[in-house]
Design a protein that fits this description.
4 copies of one chain form a homotetramer. Chain A is α/β, with parallel strands linked by helices. Chain A has 2 domains: 159 residues, Rossmann fold (3-Layer(aba) Sandwich), CATH 3.40.50.720; 173 residues, Dihydrodipicolinate Reductase, domain 2. The first copy, chain A, contains 12 helices and 13 strands. Chain A is globular, with a radius of gyration of 19 Å. Chains in contact: A-B, A-C, A-D, B-C, B-D, C-D. Chains B and D meet through helix 8 of B and helix 8 of D.
């Protein structure tokens, strides 16, 4: 049995931090050895510091770890970060500079030209940006890799399947996002019970820009962004986990409905520990995908797509869904780390 | 004080039927004198027959009315109908033929060429179709007038404001619809708690066709439908009342954001009992409109619009909201009846 | 038309403060002339300072009032207070000392021996404590009057009806409390969606002690508490407004079910502006009372009772319900002010 | 590897039937070989007949089984039944008479004197009633064993722990029950959103009688019921899974709080496949147990208890919780079958 990588989690007590702990509980390659959180938590054991909010309870292996301040050094080989963007920029760079691979779920660096914005199945070649990054920022051993905004992840995979085969020209997406995306305490119950909120601070610009980078082409150590427009309207709805996207798309090349379905179904998965068997599942039932029934598909790592039809104005329309704190956050980061490990980058 | 019109309600025990009773409780022009419902209810008093589901309780004036079978004659001057579409077609025609003005919320006749599909503020001139209708169907005193699908009402008013001023070329709408739209028992709680359902049977085709008729031009006793395309995706969300629409629109003429806001705000209201002071309210707060906070604007008869911005792909985007069982159903029908009364049509 | 009392609201931007504004919008006796809130809000107009969360929107008459710091003097004849208990004690006493009648919804003074804990219909004679209070605290014109905890109000009225007629010996109450009781932001949506929380900080002791004072006897300027025991378990449930209480009660004297129903129904209401016609409504339908259907009974000022049966262990059991931010908070305070005004105390 | 028992499920398409399929998917002792449901479903494959409502999707091994009518013979060694009580009595007896062990979750036979009402950890000796039953009803190979009402299961285990050690004299229980307990379509969303319903048809009498039988003593082939009174008020709350019970209890012998906690914690679990490691978990956090966080404890087979305190009127009070469709229904039945298998009864 191989030696496991020792992992630190930055922002361990938050919603995504807890999901990291849960996903890494019995992971064959990673073992949590350090937990870092805000000053208020530092010095306490994790079980004292963290108000655990996930069903199933806190994993035994992290309960007694003493929470540390969020600064290097930490006793680990790499760090997963789910820091709020207000502190992520400075802190993550400090960890990278101190030699740690930083696998980040934060938004701070996502759109920086030298930072990979990875969905492991879609643009693994963007890892090459790490070299550019090291040169530019003077990192030696460390680096920063990010995963996309959780709402982007809910539709980027089917979009990638279409872009790869037929070219995407424009995308209109309306998202129905889960409350867990706002962390804890997050959305007040008085705001979302018997209600919908048509606004998530800062979300629409992220959704309108990240996909073009993810689907961009790596040339000479830089990403040339994909040339399509995105229009995004983002809503908070009363769902615990699972972001739903209502999507219309225009393609550059003609494609039949069968072609489109096939492009999605045949999009290859990876052979990594957290990879789902089927990356994109296309459901035929007229009322699917639904967050409560489908968010856990592929252990929360599959994207489910349904209601795929020709559209009156665009070429096609569909509904896609992903688990926002698994595939849309902690799970994507873990998969990115597995990808990097498979390429001996950590 | 003028004599009141005597009103019958077809489908009185249902969700919309109850809303009719509530809206007509103290109405200055209408007085409920007959309630008709399915055979199971007929013969009982309304208080025995109806499981009242609206806050505030059953109005006193209807409690002791004995429910009758849904067939003419009824002791009234006109009927409001909220029959399920399976029975509406035959029954409503029978009432019209028997001489009753039928103000219907059902979908059965909406798209028939000789039936007005009315939003009182938008296309009151379509009432002229009643003449066509009488000739074609051999009605003498009676007639049928309908109001649109509740989801259509959530965005048709701002669309009408834009169409009148700048011409609409295409519309993409994604609806987030309330559970009350499905009636009672309607949506099982196991289906909508912690969930979103991306499917409402028969809804998307209605949303994609009704607006063009409403905004159509009356020429020689017939409607020429407005020439724009609609793409609709319809979702059920966990909201009790209030349909939200996420809208993108392309216009035929150039319009500044200020023009667009002004077109909506200045769309005239009517001077009828149920008319709101402001037909279309444009809200500036970034997180509005919200169903729980805004559905009751103008006593549930105003449309609230927010998040009105230029769009990356279309000319503009916005979010609009209406109360689906008031403005989107019973309230619209009552307003239509008030309009007809003001024109001495009943 | 009589001159209106000029009213200040302490804690105006909170959930209960907003309810005060709503209830006083068209009040015949009171007119809001001052709004006070935390330093963060002071100096702004109310419309700028307050994130309004009640359906129907902010009343026009308060929008442009400039929010002031929470300290005397304020430009008004009396103050309503919904301050958090952390600051209420000191601040309310300061207002009373400065000559203002303080009608408080806060918990700070409720159990002080010289402070009336009023439900206007139940113990109006306790107003006499104001004299005791003035002597003890050296108030001249000012005084403090409180209303009970919102959970207590959900069952104290039927309890009072029974106590007055038959004597209460012991009460077991389990409360199912609405999220609005925790204010805003209050209960995180992640805590209450698909969930019940069996704990509300500090609540059970309040529920176990306040009723005995309310039902106590005034003798020689002091309250002799009623001699019964209360056992309370308090739950937060996923309801916006409306606290439900599951109650068992042992009586000192024998009473038939008919006696018990009659005692509740015949408990007299008052003849004040905010008094409901029927203080305690006894519902016969097996599935009532329900928060969504019954909280607005009597404009939110009635208590609804149902499922009243003999019990296997206690004499009787029943379910009672009140609107927690109306009858359980702002509405009770307004009614107390009306009572005091009717007795020329303000 | 031992040969597995071949299992049939009566009422397979319902909420509990689906849970049976899920729990038996990879069971080491049982294998589903027959699915029976109403005439509407019979003849279709399970995947066609059943609207699957549990997260995670329908197990592969049942998808292609052709649903049969609910009558013997079925191709299996024993049957699990979750039939509605209207048909359970006749049907289950027919299966038992035809030689099948019937492990039933239905209420029909629970209180019959010769039918074991089993919680495997509590009264396994009641299995001896099967002999009485065979004699009385003329069964040869077959028999009927039942598990309790789901609400009873939420508090009977801690009650059993106390009864065994100290004797229980009386119990007051108020239940907060999940919507899944009503099956599908079950509770309309309009009834439970922003609401609590204080009534579940037929529930309170079950809760007030079943515990005494479960905790009764087997003497001469008959159960002498435990001699305590139960008072039950049952509420439906907006929770998907997990029944919460608010309990007060009087004991016959004196017990310290420590004694009480110890009695619960030390109540032995069994060594069967579905047994949780800890039958009764006593939680110390003040806000636990909560359905969303604790219903899955012990894979949904543990009972969690919290807020255990001395009470003002009774000796002790506490809150207990169980997963109503696992421990409260299908899981209990499976555990009963494992118990019977371990005793070579099937």
């Amino acid at each position: 049995m191989a030696k496991k990588f020792r992992v630190g989690i930055l922002g361990a007590t938050g919603t995504v931090g807890q999901r990291f702990c849960q996903l890494l509980e019995n992971h064959p390659q990673f073992e949590i050895t350090a937990l870092a959180a805000s000053d208020r938590s530092a010095g306490k054991t994790f079980v004292e510091a963290c108000a655990w909010k996930l069903p199933g309870g806190m994993p035994e292996n992290v309960k007694d770890i003493v929470v540390q301040p969020i600064e290097p050094p930490l006793d680990c080989d790499l760090v997963f970060s789910s820091l709020p963007s207000s502190v992520a920029r400075e802190t993550e760079e400090a960890f990278a500079r101190a030699g740690y691979p930083v696998i980040s779920n934060s938004s701070s660096f996502r759109m920086d030209a030298d930072i990979p914005l990875l969905i492991a199945e879609i643009n693994p070649d963007h890892i090459a940006l790490i070299e550019t990054q090291r040169v530019k920022r003077g990192f030696t051993k460390g680096f920063i890799v990010t995963n996309p905004n959780c709402a982007v992840v809910s539709f980027a995979p089917p979009l990638a399947a279409l872009h790869r085969k037929f070219g995407v020209e424009s995308v209109v997406v309306t998202t129905l996002q889960a409350i867990s995306g706002a962390g804890y305490p997050g959305v007040p119950s008085l705001d979302i019970t018997d209600n919908v909120v048509p606004y998530i601070a800062g979300e629409e610009p992220k959704v309108e820009t990240e996909a073009q980078k993810i689907l961009g082409k790596l040339t000479d150590g830089a990403i040339e962004k994909a040339d399509f427009s995105v229009s995004a309207q983002c809503f908070r709805v009363h769902v615990i986990d699972g972001h739903t996207a209502s999507v219309r798309v225009d393609l550059r090349e003609t494609a039949t409905l069968e072609d489109v379905i096939d492009a999605m179904k045949s999009f290859p998965s990876l052979d990594l520990h957290s990879s789902p068997k089927q990356f994109i599942q296309v459901l035929e039932e007229p009322s699917r995908p639904q967050p409560r029934l489908d968010r856990d598909a592929g252990n929360g790592m599959s994207i489910t797509v349904g209601r795929l039809f020709p559209d009156n104005i665009f070429d096609y329309r569909f509904v896609s869904l992903s688990h926002n704190t698994v595939r849309g956050a902690a799970g994507s980061a873990v998969l990115n780390a597995e990808l990097l490990a498979s390429k001996n980058m950590i």
